[in-house]
Design brief:
By secondary structure, the chain is an alpha+beta fold. It is built from three helices and six strands, in the order βββαβααββ. The protein is globular, with a radius of gyration of 15 Å.
């Protein structure tokens, strides 16, 4: 069960792997999580592939959310930036596994954006998020 009212107009079709809109509870505090890269300049070794970077970026987003007193279901919105859309799509099964390990079957409002590059060396994925901590329906 989501902490939010999920808004999915029937005319847009049934969403699979995202939610069209999320209505946050009254009195909740907004948390804006900066882009969390799947690999960063200071990391040692070779950058892993999409699935491992996606999991790493999600973990970093959730670390910030938990530090603010929330959990995975407090995440209302995610924007996933990738440098190679075909490579990302080819990893969908592994990405889904990483997602379900952290979020279960809950999906916030999401967007996927292909970009030319990311600041961090070897980063294939960067995720920014908005979470709502607390509040009442």
């Amino acid at each position: 069960m989501s902490k939010f009212d999920l808004v999915n107009p029937a005319s847009l079709g049934e969403p699979k792997g995202w939610t069209n809109g999320v209505l946050a509870p009254a009195g909740g505090r907004m948390l804006f999580v900066a882009g969390q890269a799947g690999w960063e300049n200071g990391a040692t070794g070779e950058p892993p592939g999409f699935a491992a970077q996606f999991a790493r970026a999600l973990d970093k987003v959730l670390l910030v959310v938990r530090e603010a007193g929330g959990d995975a279901e407090c995440v209302a919105r995610l924007t996933v930036f990738v440098t190679d859309l075909p490579g990302y799509l080819a990893s969908r099964r592994e990405l889904g596994e990483a997602w379900r390990e952290r979020f279960g079957r809950y999906y916030p409002a999401m967007a996927l954006v292909e970009v030319k590059g990311l600041v961090d060396r070897g980063a294939l994925v960067e995720i920014e998020a908005t979470a709502v901590i607390g509040g009442q329906a």
